[in-house]
Amino acid sequence: MAARCVSVGVPVPGLGRLTYRVPESLPLPVRGARVTVPLGTRAVTGCVIEAAVAPPDSGTLKDIIEVIDTDAFLPETVVALALWVAEYYAAGPGDALLNAMPPRARTGDASAFRRVPVAQWKTEMEPEGSSPRGDTRANAPLPRKTLLRGDKQRVAADLLQQTPEGVPLSALRRSGVSLATVRSLERAGLVTIHDEIVERDPFEAVGGADRTQWTLDGTTPEGRELTPEQAHAYRHLEEAVITGLFRTMLLQGVTGSGKTELYLRLADLVLRRGRRVLVLVPEIALTPALAGLFRARFGRRVTIQHSGLSDGERHDQWHRIRRGEVDVVIGTRSAVFAPLDRVGLIIVDEEHDHAYKQEDAPRYQGRDVAVVRGRMEGAVVVLGSATPSLESAANAAAGRYDHLTLTQRVWNKPLAEVRLVDMRQEFAAHGADVMISQALWDALELRLSRGEQSMILLNRRGFATVVFCRQCAATMECPHCSVTLTYHRTARKVRCHYCNYASGIPKACGTCGGEFLEQSGFGTERVEADVRARFPGARIVRVDRDTIRRRGAIAKVLTAVAKGEVDILVGTQMIAKGHDFPSVTLVGVVSADVGLGVADFRAAERTFQLLTQVVGRAGRGDIPGEAIVQTLYPDHYSVKAAAAQDYAAFYAQEIDFRTRMRYPPTIGLINVVVRGTSLGKALDDANALVTLTRQAGARATVLGPAPAPLSKIKDEYRAQFFLKGAHRRAMRDAIEHALDQRPDLRRKTVVDVDPYSTS
Ligand code: ADP
Ligand code: ZN
């Protein structure tokens, strides 16, 4: 007898594929369908991986509880992609599969469509007086007026007759038609009321920030000629698309060199050839701008997918994509799993951005998964950046990717002039509490007097980063994490940026009772306060995670800046990325060194990327821009190369450092973090895993264990060890083997393949 067994992935860390029996009362589910299965005492939503498997030799099988989907919920490519992610990133298959679904689908909610009651004027089978030609719509309703009683009904009837497809009751209410009136029309047999599925459209809510209105020269995009450099790059891209095979192209172009323009043309070409386009951007805040450009060219067949949408919007748009109603999907990293078929082009914009790395299970790198998807789909993958990641640049250097470059801004608009300010000299001259140098004050004042806009960047929010006691020097630490608390002045609180713990400022030191608490270190809130005090008449806006909480808020700020309603924009890296501000002529970087000196092998890369991006923000319009970069390390190669806008120089030094120190991309790296109720316990467990991993023959160097730089987060202590080697599969297998021997440690252990955050 054929076994009615299926293998299922469930979203529980550390669980592989589980085999269940399908009772005769249920249909056999297909691969990619959702099912409800028993797990311990719970029932969870899982995804079918294999539709007909042999029953295991031993043990009793549990029955599936429910088959949610009769067809595959996830298309085959997405199932295959998710399983690749599970394998490569050492995640559970269930985690990876459910991660590829929109949020509500993960809980098996099949009724997540929004239904609203709609009233519709009856057009056929009318009680009396239908017109002889059967033309019963708006131009022939008169005879029926006789049935109407009173003004209210007449107003309602007019509205409904003007909209034969029906009007939601909520809209009628807004027009002053009460439910009672509609019901009375229903009783009279003139109107039907029924539920209709309405689609929630993310473009309505996001709005604003339409980049098309900020073009440099006022020409329409379609009427433009490409610059010679653009044309050269485009010929290569075009050829790849026409060949119709998988190929990855690194498009390295300075900010403002016209990469986006190339994306649009390429997308147009792909669509005309009957295939579809996936566009990834690193941040939610960047989607409206790019989506606006795509919508302007390709209309309603463009949609967005990211976690900033409401669950409902995401659900509706996901199903539109699944039904084949969408040709272009723009979204953040999770959109790499969009259920789009016939994908011919995948664009990863700002491919170097660390936001492509997911820091929860499954810990995938969206850009790298995009390349894998491109291979599966036979699509062209374009990785665009002004400052390519070391990974992509190394792939290009090795010939695995094609390398296209745009070295000049469109119509040779010059890049900003960069001035480095050595803060050590500034401290020597004006004291150690100087935050903004004389050079930056002068430059700000000049812009204000000319009516031009400035931007000030500091990659740290809050007012002061440390609160300490003048008597015993104790610092205020988070009770749950091994970090100091940040002082937020407006909120009158100290707050932990890791667990969000907050408390009022105590009157006295918790350690010695001393009454003089002081602050040091500064963040964006302090910068804003100082700039306001200096220029009381200026219009100043701060953008960071404290001020931008609600969705759409950043779009509002961007629009205000574009309209010239802001003089000085102060913010964290949120303002550095991608946004196009033609009239910003000055960019000030308060401290280029936030991040340097941290135990992170990517620190120099992060610094170089951020500085280059932010400098690229200045002078996009007609007036040349200036950037003032304050630093304690003016001689550091990442700062120098960024000031010179010299990517090649940076790459040469950085790849040399990575090669000598055996860091990615010259080698594979896996970070294993073991959590525990005490540091000693975490270290002991990590030690046990290190021993077992070594025994398993990882073909790698195992370093550690040691306390993680952040040794305590949210009341959990953390120890970590690293594997460095050329064979990722052998490394992963060895860790898997170790965890198989110590299943009790599975839940306490986080395995991070190709890690970004090693603290
Ligand atoms: P990037 O994506 O490389 O930062 P964009 O594609 O946004 O650059 O181009 C920068 C600016 O130049 C935009 O305002 C864009 O509309 C404009 N632009 C791009 N290509 C051309 C062109 N060939 N002719 C005229 N303007 C262009
Ligand atoms: Zn904390």
* Number of E-state strands: 30
Task: Give the low-pLDDT segments.
Answer: 128-143, 205-219
Specify the helix fraction band. 25-40%
Main beta sheet strand tally, sense and closure: 7 strands, parallel
Q: Assess the beta-strand content as a share of residues.
A: 15-25%
Task: Specify the number of helices.
Answer: 21
CATH topology of the largest domain: Rossmann fold
Total discrete domains: 6
Mean pLDDT: 87
Report the CATH architecture of the largest domain.
3-Layer(aba) Sandwich
Query: Which molecules are bound besides the chains?
Result: adenosine-5'-diphosphate, zinc ion
Q: Write the CATH homologous superfamily of the largest domain.
A: P-loop containing nucleotide triphosphate hydrolases
What is the approximate shape?
A: globular
- How big is the Rg? 30 Å
Distance between the termini: 54 Å
Strand order of the largest sheet: 11-12-10-13-14-9-15
Structural class: alpha/beta
Look at the structure and give the CATH class of the largest domain: Alpha Beta
Secondary structure blueprint with pairings:
Layout: E1 5-9, E2 18-21, E3 34-39, E4 42-50, E5 66-67, H1 76-88, H2 93-99, E6 114-121, H3 150-162, E7 167-168, H4 169-174, H5 179-187, E8 191-198, H6 202-206, H7 228-243, E9 247-253, H8 259-272, E10 276-280, H9 287-298, E11 302-305, H10 311-322, E12 328-331, E13 343-348, H11 366-377, E14 380-385, H12 390-397, E15 402-406, E16 417-422, H13 423-430, H14 438-450, E17 453-457, E18 466-469, E19 486-488, E20 493-495, E21 502-503, E22 517-520, H15 524-534, E23 540-543, H16 553-562, E24 568-571, E25 584-589, H17 603-615, E26 626-631, H18 637-643, H19 647-661, E27 668-676, H20 679-695, E28 701-713, E29 716-725, H21 728-741, E30 749-753
Parallel strand pairs: 9-14, 9-15, 10-12, 10-13, 11-12, 13-14, 16-26, 17-24, 17-25, 23-24, 25-26
Antiparallel strand pairs: 1-2, 1-4, 3-4, 3-5, 6-7, 6-8, 18-22, 19-20, 20-21, 27-29, 27-30, 28-29
Helix pairs in contact: 1-2, 1-11, 3-5, 7-8, 17-18, 18-19, 20-21
Bound molecules: adenosine-5'-diphosphate (ADP) and zinc ion.
